[in-house]
Design a protein that fits this description.
The chain folds into 2 domains: about 80 residues, no CATH class; about 180 residues, no CATH class. The protein is globular. The longest helix has 16 residues. The strands form 2 sheets. Strands 1-2-3-4-8-5 form a 6-stranded mixed sheet, with helices on both faces. It contains 11 helices and 8 strands. By secondary structure, it is an alpha/beta fold. Helix 9 runs antiparallel to helix 10.
Amino acid sequence: MSDRSIQKFKEYVQKLNPIDDIIFRKMAESKEFCEEILRTFLQDYHLKVLNNKSQYAITSIERRSVILDAYCELRDGRRVNIEVQNADNVNHQKRVRYYSSVLTTSLMKKGESFDNVPEVCMVYICNFDIFKENKSSYLIKRVIDGSNREVDNGLKEIYISANINDGTTLSELMGVFTKDDCYSENFPVTSKMKYDFKYVKEGNKMTDAMKELYDIFKEDIDQEVLEKSKSKWIKEGVINTLIMLVKDGIISVEDAAKRANLSVSTFQKYLNEKM
């Protein structure tokens, strides 16, 4: 890998943050990272993650399969799915409903008692205010109409607005998630992992963390493509990856065009060719 290729890749990675899928999926491989952020999300500072999986696929031949950004099993038996969402271009609530039902179904054996249905928590991190109430988080509860009595069926939905700063600890964590050079002593694991992915310490070498990102990236971007003409680079490399992310609802067309250094109309043409 040439110095020039390394530099181009470094420049791209330094624009990314944990709110971006390519960074989050690697960070979510760390049990310590999942534990640190979930303690804030669930307001449970004794929470313990027993097992975690990044890009956890639940496949089905007859039905739509899903890939969970992060899946965690907690010591108390709860199961948690963490999703990061940059683009506001899908029906988020129905997506959460579907993901939670597929996850729950995958955890149950044929003929097993409904008493054994595990508690499932869906944490949906949005880089926008999904309900437009200027809140950093929304906990969805089931209540009986008229009495407002809360009823619990074991499903918890938490929507987090990463773009809202209300001075809370959660907002501080979301600053680390979304802002380029924002780190926090209150979130040492998240901050260190973010820094390790984004920067190198000396010379033009890549850190091990950056190499892991490049291994993901190179499935769609051959290192030589970075050295070729812009048109071929677009067709064979980064644009294919960005088109995939747009189709999956992970980023918007506008964000993808910006990352590819293209106009929105030009990127839309490439997207239309792949539809």
